[in-house]
Design goal:
mainly alpha; Arc Repressor Mutant, subunit A; 8 helices; elongated
Length: about 200
């Protein structure tokens, strides 16, 4: 059974590599196959990163074009999807910076408790005074960037460093600072809310 699975996996890897070689060679059919395979995934990532739907759609199209252009760089050390994710994130972030917009949109994608509240400052999830995305807009752009990539897209610290062209230590520092600032903002509002409830009771 194990050998059968390995054979199937090897076959899938070979098929992906063949597809990417045909895309790089300008095969229109192969390009359509790849675009169809990745379109929904690229769109979801763009929507998570950009607040405005129209901007997200534009960025997704740009990312697909960049993926097709970069097809010659694909190596079979990772899946096509994972390889395309990195290009998508870079392209969407670049588009957001070019447009000078605030791109980060967490909505319900992040469980505040997963950000690691300190024992003396319990994080609020369902009871936050404001939506989590509102708090994120108060963070510096660099901190929002690493948080969305870590907690929404699931990238490792090393991968974030590669995607953002920053040292791993810088990414770690930004994550720590972002979590600390987010906890402080949420705790502040929670205490104000508690005091207001006491006054009205």
């Amino acid at each position: 059974m194990h050998s059968v699975m390995n054979t199937l996996m090897d076959g899938a890897v070979a098929a992906d590599l063949s597809l990417m070689k045909r895309v790089a060679a300008g095969d229109k059919h192969a390009q359509r196959v790849l675009a169809h395979r990745l379109a929904a995934r690229v769109g979801r990532i763009s929507q998570r990163l950009l607040r405005n739907r129209a901007d997200a759609e534009d960025a997704a199209q740009m990312a697909l074009i960049e993926i097709l252009r970069s097809s010659g760089t694909y190596k079979d050390i990772s899946s096509i999807e994972r390889w395309a994710d990195r290009i998508t994130v870079r392209t969407v972030l670049r588009h957001a910076r070019d447009q000078r917009r605030k791109p980060w949109h967490f909505s319900s994608l992040v469980d505040v408790e997963s950000l690691g509240a300190a024992p003396e400052e319990p994080a609020q999830s369902e009871e936050t005074a404001r939506p989590v995305e509102d708090y994120l807009q108060e963070l510096p752009a660099a901190r929002r960037e690493v948080l969305v990539m870590k907690h929404s897209l699931g990238y490792t610290t090393e991968e974030i460093a590669e995607l953002t062209d920053n040292p791993v230590g810088t990414v770690k520092d930004r994550l720590v600072a972002a979590r600390k600032q987010l906890r402080k903002l949420i705790t502040r509002d929670a205490r104000v809310r508690a005091r207001d409830l006491e006054k009205t009771s």
